[in-house]
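Q: Predict the bound structure with WT7.
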Amino acid sequence: MLRITSIEEYHSEYKKSIDNPEQFWAEKAEQFYWQKKWDEVLRWNFDEPKIEWFVGGKLNITENCLDRHLPTRANQIAYYWEPNNPNEKAIELTYQQLYEQVCKFSNVLKNNDAKKGDRICIYMPMIPELTIAVLACARIGAIHSVVFGGFSATSLSGRIQDCDCNIVITSDGGYRGAKDIPMKQVVDEALELCPSVKKVVVVERTKTPITMLEGRDIFWSNEMQNASVNCPAEIMDAEDFLFILYTSGSTGKPKGVVHTCGGYMVYTHYSFQNVFQYNEGEVYWCTADIGWITGHSYIVYAPLLAGATSVIFEGVPTYPNAGRFWEIIDKYNVNIFYTAPTAIRALEAAGVDFVKPYKLNSLRILGSVGEPINEEAWNWYNEHIGKYNCPIVDTWWQTETGGILISPLAGITKTKPCFATLPLPGIQPVLVDEKGNEIKGNGVEGNLCVKFPWPSIIRTTYGDNERCKQNYFATYPNLYFTGDGCKRDDDGYYRITGRVDDVMNISGHRIGTAEVESAINMHIDIVESAVVGYQHDIKGQGIYAYVICVNKQKDVEMLRKEILAEVTKTIGAIAKPDKIQIVSGLPKTRSGKIMRRILRKVAEGELHNLGDISTLLDPSVVEEIKLGVIK
Ligand code: WT7
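A: Predicted complex:
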């Protein structure tokens, strides 16, 4: 049985998944098309770590996303594409058309020397070609590394270098609201530092003037003209890499999270079916960008595996006005809508007048993802969008988990505002204390870990398995550590309280404090900086930076602008600090460790309860910081 239909069935499926995980997941995997069946369901240890699912199985995920559906769904819409500008023509892609485009572009890649195992970087706006490019990589067995279009040239080159990409797929520019973003220009700048890249495929989207480097840069449309629609799928091992997706941690550079073909396919599909309770013929819309894991799993792969019809939206929620999401829901009769708390809060702030003109009566299920959803936003979503008639699924997961791990099953699990509720079958969450002791029972709080693998768990961090171990498997032996704090209430419901490490969550985007600090430190006048997150009404968290400036004469406003420019150049606009305070020193212990706890409290405006500061090398800096706090 694939889809759970009642809470009793959830409990019995959950039990089966714990009692016999191998049998449970083998049953879920059976329904797919495998070129060769697996020899063994699961082999694992969290120590190295080494985790393998469906060992020996052979498949190609695109045959399951596309070919498998053609006999029954050739003329069904796979994607409605809605452009940034509502006056531009929308595009529909049927399963047959998507299949043909993917095969053609697969041949374009092959004609340009792409081979199985190559890494291909995709840096594109939210246009249909992005999905086609992702699937074409998967079809020929190349490993895609999609980089979100908001990242800077420096970030892009770092990601290209880290996994030695030989091809980049991009577009001339991209539309986001009133902005026209020069993507090819960013690629050109990034590639000055990336000798491994031999070909750049360019989609023409904005027709903005660009330079094309002879021999390296080629146009998508030219290449597609003569490409054959016939492209047999590469035979992949279940554990061959499907993609790399870079994500921030608490230390160092972003790391390349690796997902593999078989397990990722089985789990993303299973979680999609059960969490969203997708019914045949419904229209589903996830507003994420494909540059993040939500877009990979729940715009590209899972909906196609389920044979669903989805909306892809190029633009932003507030363009041309804050009614755009609601207009799109009515236009396509969206049944299932999946978005982020930061968007909900921004649209709530814009006022209900933007909601009123729309019926929204096609909606059946609402989803939330990316950060804890606060009660006020939850209630607004429930009242004004769901009209008290749509279950809200607050889905907790991570880039590393590949799919949703803790969430209500829509219409089945009783919801509670702010609670991600219960683990999906196959997921064994545990809460632990600082020492790693399991905290049993209900009405407790601790650090969230998972004690048994599920099919789409991270396999490694690209090129550095030791880093994967240190980040996720070394904090507590034999547990996968999520980095999140969590409560389990008296009903056994889980409520995620936020990161317990130095990772911030800015508008649902994950950004490491260390990354922002090293970007700020690039500024010539800055000797040292410390960055913390603080509660922000719309973004969830904002970025607060404390900086030590050597040039005492420096104009404060000028310094601020230069720091913002430095961060935009090094990471991207999403990482710009909201507040910058110039300080003469940072609160450090005698061993030189910055006491972030104090900086966090000051940034939150809690100036009186700073706790014990007697271990500080120079407690007087705290007084100065308190006096200069930016409100
Ligand atoms: C971190 C993962 C996976 C989706 C996009 C973000 C936070 C995610 C929730 C939620 C509370 C959440 C966690 C997690 N987070 N969803 N429903 N409730 N917190 O993926 O960039 O890998 O970030 O986002 O802190 O660790 P990501």
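A: The first strand starts at residue 40 and ends at 45.
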